[in-house]
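>> received
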Amino acid sequence: KSLSMTEALREAIAAGPSLREIERRTGVKRQALAKFVRKEQSLRLDLADKVAEYFGIEAIRKGK
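>> returned
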């Protein structure tokens, strides 16, 4: 089963370097990252794009 973008990002953030390092590299606040990983809030799409790019995660369009 493939992961959703949200699941892929959560896994990468949780397993990746420190939130401080991700914040330094992406500009996305570590508080927002922490709340996202804990499923307390979503990431804005533009911020999710930055995090996905940092981790090399790409979206794949699926046919209907």
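>> The CA atoms of residues 3 and 58 lie 11 Å apart.
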